[in-house]
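REQUEST FORM: STRUCTURE PREDICTION
Request ID: SP-0412
Submitted by: Lab K.M.
Chain count: 1
Length (residues): 236
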Amino acid sequence: MLKPLLSSPFLWLSLTAGLYLLAAKLSKKRPKFVLFNPLVFSIISIIIILLVFDIPIEKYEKNTSVLSLFITPATVALAVKLEQNYDQLRKYWKAILIGIASGVLFHTGLIYGLALSLDFDHVMVATLLPKSITTAIAVDVSTSLGGIPSLTVAVVVFTGVIGGIIGPPLFKLFKINDEVAQGVALGSSAHAMGTAKAIELGDVQGAMAGLSIVITGITVVLLSPLTKPITDIIFK
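STATUS: Completed
RESULT:
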């Protein structure tokens, strides 16, 4: 009786959505409690359930695969807020592009520096390079560079969660009060999860974060063919 139920896509879809909504409600009551972040809470809860009932992750992925279909449309939908704040884009477009480009270059250099200091191989470098772009793009970039896509997804999620959590406190610490700067920082470093936090901060932040996701993704895709030969030479 229990076995057919555990194989039901409806059960796992409902459970995943229910855990996320529960965490969203809890996070409003305890916003400073990190474990109530909806994504963190959902991931940990699902892992515990799978371990308790000894359910292979492949079965969970199969029964919830429909959720992955919404990643790309959800990313594209962020353009709605950008259209509503087009004046900000027209006014600061140079600063936005320079900020995103410099962020991507700094991130790439940081990954290479970390890889050299920790003696990573080229596979791990390829896995980590796309960690700050949205999952829909990161998986393809990781695959094309010879990385491990499943590990890239995990790192992308971790990056987004950390970015969404520490972003606002860092803004206060360094007195970054400009709405455009906040949005670009969250979108270009913490992709969709950073954008979700940016939307909470305000419409301008959300619009700029949505724009930053797209431009950061395009920039990384364009740079990735250039990084592959460099990676192969350094980490051969």
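NOTES: The chain has two domains: 2-63, 75-234.
Reviewed by: T.R.
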